[in-house]
Amino acid sequence: MEDKGKNRVAVYIMGEEYILRGSSSTEEMEHVGRYVDNLMRKLSESNHQMSRQRIAVLAALNLADELLRLKQEKPRTADEAKDME
Prior knowledge:
Layout: E1 7-13, E2 16-22, H1 26-46, H2 52-73, H3 78-84
Antiparallel strand pairs: 1-2
Helix pairs in contact: 1-2
């Protein structure tokens, strides 16, 4: 399967390499990787006994909370506004 029109970039999260493919620019994908890495590292520093899997789930919950708060503040479309009801 070919990824026509897709960019590819390697990012490192908690010391592990992940290959991202998408239509976003490589700079945007690298920024996302750094954002997730920084969040997971901060969570890991304050939760020394927590496994990487739990850190990842906690990071996902934090990111979902952030996303939902932003969506509540300013829905981008009428459909999104309906979904929030």
